[in-house]
Specification:
Structural class: alpha/beta
CATH class of the largest domain: Alpha Beta
Oligomer: single chain
Bound molecules: adenosine monophosphate
Strand order of the largest sheet: 3-4-2-5-6-1-7
Shape: globular
CATH architecture of the largest domain: 3-Layer(aba) Sandwich
Radius of gyration: 22 Å
CATH superfamily of the largest domain: P-loop containing nucleotide triphosphate hydrolases
Number of domains: 2
Number of strands: 14
Number of helices: 17
């Protein structure tokens, strides 16, 4: 792909000035491909994940397009749907950053925080409404927001919405919007349910697919540590050893279940580590507080679940630990993509128990090369044992409780 400059993408001069102020010198591939299409008002299907610069690829053209026209009471001019509160809050931050030269009004409808201020803003009229689907429908049903003025719809991280069971909500919302609108749709993967949604609600979209950052990032050293003893206490001991032996500036430690996040967090604190936790059950305020402390360096370690961490903009993480191996290999890519950004060196270390050797095989297949073990690798017998153990195992229902 030829290298484009921001000046060639059709963005307004105010937006270009904000990009320079943000310190960006050239567009990322998704930005170079999506922005020229989006500024013309056409629909975009962007297959891209966090870390590719996808947020700016819709925020920048939106600001440009919203420069003409004005907001009317209770009728937002554009709507962004995001799967989690954190992602919604981050998109809002992007509007503030890239919209410093524009006087756009914005409201955020998310769970867990008082919405009185946001409702007042909606009453006055907003250019941009950012919401999680359930919250939006809630406000719509109470008559606090009308959707027939929406000119631009963005659906961010659609595959995550699918994982979280939001697709029926998305369908309901899309049907409430004017059919003549622009839709910018982003998803890291394209399972059949998402393809169906795209064909139902997008009009002749330009499909833009970019490589996931993690698989292209050669700056991440990926290590695996086999845990012979798969008991949680034994894994925590291994984890402590790893943290102490690696030169950890700051790290995110991923667990598959939210209860494990809480247990691990407690244990780390008990062992004298500076650690916080982030999981789906926490209220908005404590999540934000924890995140701020982690960003500022006050907390060095952050135990997190995938849902809680999805889409978070946390620069400069030196290490990732997978306390549990993720069930899906694209979650693995997401997790490790939190390190090794912007050419910096990053290390990810994954603990692997005998029960997880099947998931490991999937990850290995995706990476296209054998994984690198620190310590003793699992033996052929371990792999054979793993095959036997998996049969007859129930209780996978906990997977959803993230
Ligand atoms: P995203 O994929 O939207 O989560 O963005 C990932 C990170 O890249 C964010 O921290 C952005 O601030 C940053 N970013 C976005 N666009 C650019 C760019 N053109 N040059 C450098 N950094 C960027």
């Amino acid at each position: 792909m030829e290298t484009k400059t921001f000046a060639e993408l059709g963005l307004s001069s105010k937006v270009q000035a904000a990009i320079s102020a943000a310190g960006y010198t050239s567009p990322t591939p998704i930005q170079a491909a999506a922005i020229p299409i989006a500024v013309t008002g056409r629909d975009v299907l962007g297959i891209a994940q966090t870390g590719t610069g996808k947020t700016a690829s819709f925020v920048l053209p939106m600001i440009t397009r919203l420069e003409t026209g004005r907001a009317r009471a209770r009728m937002p001019r554009s709507l962004i749907l995001a799967p989690t509160r954190e992602l919604a809050a981050q998109v809002a931050q992007s509007f503030e950053k890239y919209g410093i030269n524009n006087k756009l009004s914005l409201a955020l409808l998310i769970g867990g925080v008082s919405m009185d201020d946001q409702v007042k803003k909606l009453d006055r009229g907003v250019d941009v409404l950012i919401a999680t689907p359930g919250r939006l429908l809630d406000h719509f049903q109470r008559g606090r927001v009308m959707l027939m003025g929406v000119e631009i719809l963005v659906i961010d991280e659609a595959d995550r919405m699918l994982d979280m069971g939001f697709i029926p909500d998305i369908e309901r919302i899309c049907k409430l919007l004017p059919p003549r609108r622009q839709t910018l749709f982003f998803s890291a993967t394209m399972p059949p349910e998402i393809t169906r949604l795209v064909s139902q609600f997008l009009t002749n979209p330009e499909r833009i697919e970019v490589a996931p950052p993690a698989t292209t990032a050669k700056t991440i050293t990926q290590l695996f540590r086999f845990c012979d003893n798969g008991e949680d206490w034994a894994k925590r001991e291994v984890l402590r050893e790893l943290i102490s032996s690696q030169n950890v500036k700051n790290a995110i430690i991923f667990c598959n279940r939210k209860v494990e996040v809480a247990i691990l967090h407690k244990s780390l604190v008990k062992h004298g580590f500076s650690a916080g936790a982030l999981h789906g059950d926490m209220d908005q305020k404590s999540r934000m507080e924890t995140l701020d402390k982690f960003r500022s360096g006050e907390l060095k370690l952050l135990a997190a679940s995938d849902v809680a961490a999805r889409g978070l903009d946390i620069p400069d993480v030196s290490h990732i630990f997978n306390f549990d191996l993720p069930w899906q290999s694209d979650d693995y890519v997401h997790r490790i993509g939190r390190t090794g950004r912007a050419g910096k060196e990053g290390v990810s270390t994954s603990l692997v128990t005998i029960d997880e050797l099947k998931s490991l095989k999937d990850i290995e297949k995706m990476l296209g090369e054998p994984v690198v073990w620190i310590g003793e690798p699992p033996s052929a017998e371990d792999f054979a044992e793993a095959g036997k153990k998996r049969r007859g195992r129930g209780g996978r229902g906990a997977q959803r409780q993230r």
